[in-house]
Each structure stands twice: as C-alpha cells, then as structure tokens.
Design brief:
- The complex is a heterotrimer of chains A (about 220), B (about 475) and C (about 210).
- By secondary structure, chain A is mainly alpha-helical.
- Chain A folds into 2 domains: about 45-75; about 90-220, Orthogonal Bundle (Cytochrome Bc1 Complex, Chain D, domain 2), CATH 1.10.760.10.
- In chain A, about 45% of the residues lie in helices and about 5% in strands.
- In chain A, strands 1-2 form a two-stranded antiparallel sheet.
- In chain A, strand 1 (about 145-150) and strand 2 form a beta hairpin.
- With about 210 residues, chain C is mainly alpha-helical.
- Chain C has helices at about 5-30, 50-65, 115-120, 125-135, 175-185; strands at about 35-40, 45, 150, 170-175.
- Chain C starts with a helix and ends in a 26-residue tail after the last helix.
- The chains are: A mainly alpha (about 220), B mainly alpha (about 475), C mainly alpha (about 210).
C-alpha cells in the first residue's frame, strides 16, 4: 500500500472522527475560556460592534424610511403631508369646458351663438356677462318663457334646471356650475369675471326650491 | 460491497456512507449534469450579449428565455440537487446514525429532476414567470415542493435520531436549509401565484424569495459544509465556537430582510429598500463571526478540498461586504441596472455556493464510492478551470457593469454603451466557456469514479481518523 | 443546540418576522392604495390596460423582455433617467396597480420602457414601424422573426404585411402575438402626475443626507 500523500488531490484524508467533532465542540461550549486578555475581549468586541451596526442601521432607517408610509417614494422626504402632497387643483376652465361640451353645447352650440329664434346666444350676452345672481339662478333652476337677449326675443325652448334642486335631471354640483359659468364668461370674447363655488352655493340656498325662472322675475334680481 | 482489505477503509467509510450511497450519488450526479446544462445556457447567453443575432431566429433560444432557463437549471438543478445531497450527508454523518429513508430520498430526487426538466423545457417554450429566482412555470411548483419533502426525509430522520443531543453547527445549518426552503417557497407560492399581491407588491415578495434562496437555503448548506470540513480535515476544533450559534441566528433572522434592496429607487414605498439596506449592514455581523470560526480554511494549503473551500469562503465573505456596499443608494445609482448585478450573482452563486459544493463533493464522493478519484490531472484541471474562470468572470462583469453604469447615467447612446462594454463581455464569454469546460471535466470524472471497478481501490488508502482533542485553540 | 423544539420555533419565528414585515406588511399597505379620480380628466388613474395590451404583457413576459429592459423610472437627480426622456417623474406603486404582473426588470441592456408609448408616439412611432423593428432587430436588440409568419399572398397583400423583400408570391405578416406585443408597448405610459411621485421638497435649513 502506498502511504497516502496529504496533498494528493485524488483523496482528501480525514483528520478527526465525526463523533469527536461533535463531542469536542460540545465540550468547547461548556468549558470556560482561559482568562487571557484577548479571549475576554472578543465577546466585548462583538457586543460593541453589534451595537454599532444596529445603531448605524437604526439611524439609516430613521433618516430614509419616510415614516413607513406607502405614499413616500423619495427616501429624503419628510413626514407625508409636509411637502406639496396636495391633490392637483381642479382647473375650472377645463372642468367647465368639459361640462359645456357634455350638455350646453346641444342648444347653445360650440361657438356660443345658439340657434337663431330658438336658443339664445351666450357670446356677448348681457345675461352672461352681467349680474351673477341672474346667471347662476338661470343655470341652477332653469328658465321658462320668453327672454330678450341682445334685442332679440327667444321663447320657444325651456332651459332645464342643472343645479342640485328638486326636479333637476342633472344635479350638477355647485363646483361644476361655477366652473361652466366661469368658462362661458370668458369664452367667445366674453370678458366677465369667474364665479366662485361658494357664490353658487349662496345663491342656490337663497333661492331655495322653485320652478324655472321667468324673465320678469329675473329682472327683479340685483 | 467494498473489499475491505484494510480496516482503515472500513473505519473511515462508516455504514452511513454505504447506506447513503445510492441516493447521494444520484443527487450529486444529476446536479453535475444540470450544472453542465446551465453552463451551456450561460455560454449561449454570454455570446448573445455581444452578438445579438446568435441563435435569434430560434424562439426556444431567445435571450430572455435562455437567461431564465440558465438560472433555473443552476439554482434548482445543480444547487438544489447537490445542496440537498451535501446536507443529507452532513446530517447523517454528524448524527452518527445510518442513513435512513434512502428509497424515499431517491424517489424524491427523481421527481425533483422531472420537475426541473419540465421547468426548463417550459421556460424555453415561454412559460417563465418573470420573477428573478423563481422563473419556474407554475405547473411545476407543487411537484417540486412535494419532491423536496421526500428528499429531505433522511435529513429529518438523521436529526431526530441523532446520537448526541447537542448538535454541531454544521447540523444546524443543514437542517435549517432543509426546513426553510419549503416554508418560504410555499409563502411565495401563495403570495405570488395563488393570491397575488397588487402591482409591485409582487416585486417585493419576489425579491424576498430570491434572497432567501441564497441566504436561507444554499448558503446555510455551504456553511454547514465549511463548518464540517475544516475541523474534520485539520483535526482541530474551531476557534471561538461559542459564538457560532450567534452567527447562525444572525444569518437566519437578518438575511431574509435584505432581499428588496434591489428595488432601491423603484416603484415601491421607500421604507422597503431602506429596511433591506439597513439589514444588509446588520448581517455583516454574521460574516464576521463565521470568519472568526472558519478562517482556518485559509491557512491549510495543499489539499484541493480546502483550496476550493478557501476560495469559496473568501467569495462568501466578499458577497456579504459587497451586498452591504452596493446596496447603498449612492453606489446603487451607478451599479443598479448593470452587469455589476451579474457579477455579484456570479460571486455568490459560483463563488460561494459552487466552489464550496465542489469542495464537499471532492471530499464526499470517495467515501461514498469507497475509492479515491481516478485521476489527479482531472482534479487539477478542474480546479484551475473553475478558479480562473470564476475570477475572470467576476472581474470582467464587474468592470463591464461599472463602465455601463457610468455610461447609463450620462446620455450616451446604447450603441455607445454596447461598444464600451463589448471587450469585457467577450472576456466574460471566454470565462463562461472555461467554467463550462471545468464542469464537463468534473462531471466526466464523477461518472468515472462511480463507474470504475474497485481493484484500483488499493492504490490509495484511507487513513484512520483520530479523535479530536477539545483544546481551545 | 440542545432542544430541537426551540430550534424549530426559532427558525419559524425568524422567517415569520421577515414574512410579517415584508410580505404581509407590504400587501396590507398596497391594499390601501386607491386609484386617483381626476376631476379635470374625468377618469380614474391609473387606467386599466386594454385587453390587447394585457395580452401583450403576457407575450412580453413569455419572451423574457424584462431580462434586458426595465420599466421603472428613477426620480430626476438619480442617474439620467429624465435627461434620456424616459420620464419626468419616478414611477410609483400606483402606476402598476392594475398590472397583472409588473415587468419591472433588473437590467438596462436596452432602454427603459416605462413610458415608451409616451415618448415614441409623439416621435412618429407607428405599429408598422415597431413591427419592423421586432422582425429585423434594432440596435442591440435581437430579431424576433418567429413572431411573424410567411404566407402565400391570397389576392391582395395584407394591410400590415411587412415591407421586406421575400419570396415571390409570399408576404411576411405579424402573428397575433406580435400585434399584441406592439399594442402593449404602445400602451406604456405612466405620465399621470400622482402627488406622491413628486420628489421631496427640501427647505434650506434641512440637511438632505444623501447616501
């Protein structure tokens, strides 16, 4: 038999028996280590390094966790809500234009000219550019009976109620009414100012529940 | 049976090895064959990176599918088979009982391999799941899970029937691997497939799973092998062994938090990558303690087993440090979507897992077969190919990744980036080819040691191991 | 370790803790993510993908496109994602809320695709051109000829037949998979301005510790 060469790659010789590995290490756990300086230092070193690592991890977590919010994607952010986290504001002109194209356009047409003799125009209309009370009430409650716009009489059609009033088929929110009016009052050459949602609410509450307005009633409003 | 002409052979090769022979040789052999398959896919992929038209006309071999197939064949074919074999052997040897449940394990292994084969074929026809690390098509999941349960049976029996109640560290690691894999695999199955989370929650869970495959399944087996081989070969107890359990629990408890660090800057709430990055720093404690215990593997020159183990262990430590460093946001912004990821994956999977598994296989196979490896030239050639291929691959991919990352963060065109990384990718292709050659050599050599007749057993004898003294080193 | 039961409990709890935080915690946070109703647009965001686009995502997944392409834009200031036109804001969780399986990707061997439609369509990308890219390959991207079929011209040339030279009497036509993939790619648009996608504003006094 050839004496095995420790370094022969064809066979790695074993040094210790399996049982002795288990028992020797078992005994190593029970035996107290020697009281040499560098043995007692290691557990201390491990405690220190562990604490240091946990401290670093904790600081890192504190700085960059965004308070564990599901809305924070930038780790350098502060607590949620502190920054510009508000929802995008609604643009009244965009909303108003959309509302106009949903409903108003059928009668008053895309160019705001209406249909001669049937539907009154909105472009250059004194009703549109004039009193806020009158125009808001028209949209909220509707308009029935003859009305004179730019000198011409219109009486064939009835404008339905758009506001949140009994009998309304549209039930548009005050915000939508304010938006559509703001849009109409600056479109096609009109130069009247915007109408606030709060104003619409105020006017609607003041008028209460009623049937469509008529021209004489409207003219009594400021 | 082994012609026990010398009592030394009988003393070294315990009854455990005799009883374990069939299942473990089957598992190791299939593992090595899958390693070769994965290596072929890896070479195809590497070529396709710098020569996109290579095999592009074939739908089975398009880059994305081959990439997924390579990863699956490697993780579940090679590492799964070999890892379970090593874990079972460690538990039986240290449990000091004979290997029970050999038939169950072999059956499990056969169905595991059927599952992996179905998975790889399924990926090539397009059923990959797109989760990195879990590309297995859904129809193979239950087959693999149940087969794994069967394969793990001998390990559980060896643990419950162990002779000494206080188990050695290698046993903790091996048993943890056998239990944790089915647990986190089932969790992933439920959370990703049966009742998937919404949107990118799936990406977080997939990243958690992929990390666990390395940290809670493969790395513990590799560590178990290291903890066993070093004292076994050197006959000296491990230093600072009283901290080994701290090292073990730090790995198990902390490493599973580090997965989602790859989603840094991604469409997930910022606390998730932050938590993982912090955990990657905390888990460095585990690497320090394991270094304290196993650093003796660097000192013992000469033997190929310990040389493989030394390179593997060095890679393992590097992976821990690299994960902590490259996960930091300031570094990740350069290396995030680059070949650096591939380099770190190679460092982890080829370096720390495969090299340590090779060390274990070079040690275990002679004991299972009752004879030494037939050819020292093949052993040396494989060692050279594996080490050179591995080092060159990691370096080439790391440089390519760094160059790519810098270029990505500028407005250089992708054609420009491809031109800049091309030389490194060519080097990486050569390295993959070298690794494949090495793997072919070891597979051939393994088949030889299993198949060759026994009269050559007299050429090299097994030395009788001695009882180790429990002196504190 | 002496007591086997304690050992198992330890393993179970250790895994259970990370499961609780990273799996359960993430899922419960995501359960609270709601779409955002925009009054200006009159629609919910993110919008659900069209059926063709959802099918196309399956083709994307099947071919493993995520191996080379990411679909996650980083915020301005990190890398050059914004400068490359990949997106003015980072992608957030809500962008992927209704995707069956987000293809976030891990490598940028090719460009990021999160907002591909948003940048390609204004630049003149049409389905036919994208189909040609897929057939021939483009830049470093390999060709995918198997997404197309060669068939005999029956009467007239098909409308979407590729303009490539082939055998007389035959034409190259995209398969359903190719069309689905193109529909998916031309639906990739994560441009809606979610509030959480804005980078954090920092006052002068605050130290932004960048790591």
């Amino acid at each position: 038999m050839s004496t095995p060469n420790q370094n022969d790659p064809r066979l790695q010789q074993a040094g210790a028996t399996d049982e002795s590995i288990v028992t020797a290490h078992e005994r190593a756990l029970e035996t107290k280590p020697d009281r040499h300086a560098h043995y007692a230092l290691l557990p201390l070193a491990i405690v220190f390094v562990f604490s240091g690592v946990i401290f670093y991890a904790g600081t890192y977590l504190n700085s960059f966790s965004g308070h564990f919010s599901s809305k924070v994607f930038d780790e350098t952010a502060g607590p949620p809500g502190a920054g510009a986290a508000a929802a995008p504001k609604i643009d009244p002109l965009t909303l108003g234009k959309r509302q106009y194209e949903l409903a108003c356009i059928t009668c008053h047409q895309a160019n705001g000219q209406g249909v001669p003799g049937v539907y009154p125009p909105l472009a250059g209309s004194e009703w549109v550019e004039g009193s806020e009370d009158r125009v808001v009430n028209i949209v909220v409650h509707g308009l029935k009976g003859p009305v004179h716009v730019k000198g011409t009489a219109y009486g064939a059609a009835v404008m339905p109620a758009f506001g949140q009033v009994p009998g309304s088929g549209y039930n548009w929110s005050d915000e939508k009414i304010a938006a559509v009016l703001t849009y109409v009052r600056q479109e096609w050459g009109n130069t009247a100012g915007p109408i606030e949602t709060a104003r619409v609410t105020e006017i609607r509450n003041a008028a209460g529940s009623r049937a469509e307005w008529t021209e004489p009633e409207l003219l009594k409003l400021p | 049976m082994i012609t026990t002409s010398t009592t030394a052979v009988a003393a070294e090769i315990s009854d455990i090895d005799v009883s374990a022979r069939r299942p473990l040789l089957y598992l190791i052999g299939s593992g090595l064959l899958w390693l070769v398959v994965s290596g072929i896919f890896a070479v195809i992929n590497a070529v396709q990176l710098h020569t996109p038209e290579f095999l592009a006309h074939c739908s089975l071999l398009t880059y994305g599918r081959v990439h997924a197939a390579q990863e699956t064949a490697f993780l579940y074919g090679w590492a799964g088979n070999a890892g379970v074999a090593i874990a079972l052997w460690l538990l039986s040897r240290l449990g000091l009982t004979i290997f029970r449940g050999a038939v169950v394990a072999t059956l499990g292994g056969v169905f595991w391999n059927i599952g992996v084969l179905l998975a790889v074929a399924g990926i090539l026809i397009g059923d990959a799941t797109s989760f990195p690390g879990l590309e297995l098509p859904t129809y193979t999941h239950w087959l693999l899970l149940v087969s794994f349960g069967f394969m793990a049976v001998p390990g559980v029996l060896a643990w419950s029937g162990r002779k000494h109640e206080t188990a050695f560290a290698a046993q903790w690691y091996a048993l943890a691997a056998l239990f944790l894999f089915p647990w986190f695999f089932s969790i992933a199955e439920v959370s990703l497939f049966l009742a998937p989370g919404r949107g990118t929650a799936q990406s977080v869970i997939a990243a958690w799973y992929a990390q666990n495959v390395y940290s809670l399944w493969l790395a513990p087996i590799a560590l178990g092998a290291l903890y066993y081989l070093l004292p076994k070969i050197s006959a000296k107890p491990l230093p600072h062994y009283e901290f080994a359990s701290l090292g073990f629990w730090t790995l198990i408890a902390v490493a599973c938090w580090t997965g989602p660090r790859v989603l840094v800057n991604g469409p997930v709430p910022a606390w998730i990558p932050t938590l993982s990055i912090a955990a990657a720093a905390v888990v460095l404690m585990h690497f320090w303690i394991v270094w304290l215990n196993v650093r003796g593997v660097f000192a013992t020159g000469g033997s190929v087993v310990l040389k493989f183990a030394a390179f593997g262990f060095a890679s393992y430590l590097l992976v821990g440090i690299a994960d902590a460093v490259f996960s930091l946001r300031s570094v990740a912004r350069v290396t995030q979507f680059t070949y650096m990821q591939d380099a770190l994956t190679a460092l982890a999977l080829i370096g720390s897992i495969t090299l340590i598994f090779f060390a274990a296989i070079y040690y275990i196979a002679p004991r299972l077969c009752g004879r030494a490896w037939p050819s020292s030239a093949l052993v040396r050639a494989h060692f050279a190919a594996a080490i050179i291929g591995f080092v060159v691959l990691v370096v080439a991919l790391a440089v390519a990744g760094w160059v790519q990352g810098q270029a990505l963060n500028s407005t250089a065109s992708f054609a420009d980036i491809a031109a800049r990384t091309r030389p490194w990718l060519l080097v990486a292709t050569a390295a993959q080819a070298l690794l494949l050659i090495g793997n072919l050599l070891v597979t051939f050599h393994f088949l030889k040691i299993v198949a060759c007749p026994r009269e050559e057993a007299a050429a090299l004898t097994f030395r009788t191991p001695v009882a180790m003294e429990a002196s504190a080193s | 370790m002496r007591n086997g039961i304690t050992f198992f409990l330890g393993l179970f709890c250790a895994l259970g803790l990370s499961w609780g935080a990273l799996v359960v915690g993430t899922r419960s946070q995501y359960a609270g993510i709601k779409p955002h109703y925009d009054d200006n647009e009159g629609d919910n965001f993110p919008q659900r993908p069209a059926g063709v686009a959802a099918r196309g995502q399956l083709v994307y997944q099947d071919l493993g496109c995520a191996a080379c392409h990411t679909q996650q834009v980083r915020r301005p200031g990190i890398g050059s994602d914004k400068e490359r036109g990949w997106g003015d804001r980072q992608t957030v969780a809500r962008d992927f809320l209704y995707e069956a399986r987000p293809q976030l990707g891990t490598m940028r061997i090719g460009p990021d695709l999160a907002n591909y439609a948003a940048r390609a369509e204004p630049a003149g990308m049409i389905p036919d051109r994208l189909l040609a890219y897929l057939y021939n390959g483009h830049g470093g991207m390999p060709a995918y000829p198997f997404l197309f079929e060669k068939r005999k011209i029956a009467g007239e040339r098909a409308e979407h037949a590729l303009k490539v030279r082939t055998e007389a009497g035959y034409e190259i036509v995209p398969t359903g998979r190719a069309n689905d993939l193109v529909a998916y790619l031309l639906s990739l648009n994560h441009k809606y301005e979610f509030p959480e996608a804005q980078p954090a504003t920092h006052d002068k006094g605050e130290e932004g510790e960048k790591k």
